[in-house]
Structure formats: structure tokens, C-alpha cells
Amino acid sequence: MSRLFIYQKRVLFCALPLFLVLAQCATTEATTYTITVGAYTQDTSGNYEFTGNELVFHSHKECETWSRTAPPDAHSSTSHLHYNSATDKNYDHVTTTFTWTEYGPEIDQQGIEATCNAGIGGVSKTVDNQNYFQDKPNLFLKITSVIEN
Question: Which of 67, 36, 73, 42 lies closest to 135, judged by CA?
Fold first, then answer.
């Protein structure tokens, strides 16, 4: 065998695996996740109690919005809806940590969409599936499930 032939075999042997990895990276779509975050309160003994409310996030959607029933406040004397949204979502499957930037509340869908699209007044939040994140004085968040899409 000639030296050139041996050299060509070595190059092919080394280059082919690299080519296959790069080709797979170029054709594989990024993994997306559906993350469900449960809402909890804490009783006087320090036990966390599930409220029955959940937020469902889709890691690939920008300005994902939701509404919740709010008690009477400065702009309404009765229960009413508040709207929030999330963007800049990232789920780390190694640490099981989910982060997002949350906007709101606003009093209507159109308002929260405008706020989110403008990126005004967002708050960064981070949750995982082991610890309770204190979101409000007596409201705690924790990942309850993650589905790889």
C-alpha cells in the first residue's frame, strides 16, 4: 500500500465521525419542554399545601400568557382577572432548573401582550423540582412535572 492511500484512510477514519456528529447537530431540532409549576401555600406548621393551581410553560414559546382570578384591589372592588406573561424561558434538564422572566400583572390580554413584547418591568424567577420558591408572602412555586417534547 502506498503512503498516500494509508494517509487518506487515516483522514477518512478521523473525519467521518466528526462529519456525522456535525451533520446530526445541523439536522436535529432543539429539545423543547412542557414544564408544569405548582402553586403552594404554607400552613402555620410550615407544611406546604398544594393550592390546586398550576402554571404550564412551553419552553419554546415567547410571551406566553395566562390569567388568574385576583381579589378586589385598587382598580376593582370585586374579584377579577389579572394577566401575566413569561419570556426568556430556559429549562436545564441536568439541574432540573427552570428560569423565566415574568411580566405583569395587567388587567387585560392586550395589555400583557404589549408589556411582554416591550420587555417592560420583568422579574426573573427560578424554580426546580426539589425546593419551594417564595413568589409572594404566602405563595410558593415548585416544578411538578416536565415533559420532553
Answer: 42
Terminus-to-terminus CA distance in the chain, angstroms? 51
Tens place of pLDDT per residue across the chain (149 aa): 565 545 555 544 554 454 444 444 444 468 999 999 999 999 999 999 999 999 999 999 999 999 999 899 998 999 999 999 999 999 999 999 999 999 999 999 999 999 999 998 999 999 999 999 999 999 999 999 999 99
Tally the residues of the chain.
149
**Residue 21 dihedral angles phi and psi, to the nearest 5°:** -65, -45
pTM of the complete model beyond 0.85: no
Q: Considering Cα of 21, then 147, then 66, then 39, what sign does the dihedral take? A: negative
